[in-house]
Specification:
Blueprint (H helix, E strand, L loop, with lengths): L14 E3 L4 E8 L3 E8 L4 E5 L5 H9 L3 E6 L5 H12 L7 E5 L11 E3 L4 E4 L2 E7 L8 E5 L2 E5 L2 E2 L2 E2 L7 H12 L6 E4 L4 H11 L4 H15 L7 E2 H7 L8 H10 L8 H14 L13
Parallel strand pairs: 4-5, 5-6, 6-7, 11-14
Antiparallel strand pairs: 1-2, 2-3, 3-4, 8-9, 9-10, 10-11, 12-13, 14-15
This protein binds zinc ion (ZN).
């Protein structure tokens, strides 16, 4: 088991997706990772979406009578393919389906199903859609099974991933595609970062009532060790600063932070918003300055 304490001590309960043909379980891992387990309730077969390590997921499956039969990797960072590596070391990766990006095949241990944009991954009889959502790193994939989105480190609760490979235009395009999914789509991202992201969101859009309500709710949930995830695409559209280029308040605040930089188009606004979060000015915002 990981020696690191999980920030989420009371995971979100399992929920049904795809008309009940699949369940999604949440397993806290490492410090702030969330492993999502797709479960076929008819057979007990389970597919883990990423994972920094294997122990917690394996123990969870054993405790719940589930068989881990597949891994779906969103990208090749160590806290996502760590589960592949650990299972491989234990000789337990052979025989598992491993789905990941064809374009980064060499960096995905045990890859059996290289996929890319537009491909389909069938699990539990449900056809999942593969989307290439780059910007965090090249070869980043997201998976959509019914009304659940597994988006790795692309879209976070009230945030988005760092632009390691970028460029900003690519991340912006990826986020816009995810934001166009149906509003009820559950956002199952790979880290519980929401509260920090909301602090930044409030620093740039303090007149957003939906954002204020989300902050109040998230603070209450996190104070109990709960998870703010999954969120929904509708909630992200309303409160995630990286999808809020249409907000006059956000645009004005971001533009004011970068005098002389172009801040007109959605892509320019996104680019400067991401750069402003990276500057970390918002860390100075005290809890007392937040709603709730
Ligand atoms: Zn990553």
């Amino acid at each position: 088991m990981s020696a690191v304490a999980h920030v989420v001590t009371r995971p979100h309960p399992p929920f049904a997706v795809a008309g009940g043909r699949l369940e999604v379980h949440q397993i806290p891992a490492a410090r702030d990772n969330l492993v999502w387990l797709l479960v076929d309730p008819a057979t007990g077969a389970a597919a883990a979406v990423d994972g920094p390590d294997a122990a917690g997921t394996v123990a969870y499956c054993e405790a719940h009578g589930l068989r881990l039969t597949a891994i779906l990797n969103t990208h090749v960072h160590g806290d996502h393919v760590g589960i592949n590596r650990e299972l491989a070391r234990q000789g337990r990766l052979a025989g598992l389906r491993v789905v990941g990006a064809a374009s980064t095949a060499a960096a995905i241990p045990g890859l059996t199903e290289p996929v890319d944009e537009g491909d389909t991954v069938v699990f539990g009889g449900v056809a999942g859609r593969v989307m290439r959502t780059e910007g965090h790193v090249d070869g980043h994939l997201s998976y959509v099974f019914g009304d659940a989105l597994f988006c790795g480190d692309t879209l976070f609760g009230a945030g988005c991933g760092y632009l390691f490979d970028g460029p900003p235009a690519k991340m912006h395009a990826s986020l816009e595609r995810l934001a166009a999914l149906p509003g009820e789509t559950r956002v199952c991202c790979a880290h519980e970062y929401t509260l920090d992201n909301l602090r930044f969101a409030w620093s740039v859009e303090p007149d957003n009532a939906a954002l204020a309500a989300r902050i109040v709710a998230a603070r209450a949930v996190r104070a109990e060790g709960g998870a703010t995830l999954p969120s929904t695409i509708a909630l992200e559209r309303d409160t995630n600063p990286f999808l809020r280029h249409g907000s006059a308040t956000l645009r004005a605040n971001v533009a004011a932070a970068w005098p002389g930089r172009p801040c007109e188009t959605p892509e320019e606004i996104f680019t400067l918003t991401r750069a402003l979060k990276d500057r970390k000015d918002y860390k100075a915002l005290a809890d007392a300055d937040l709603p709730g």
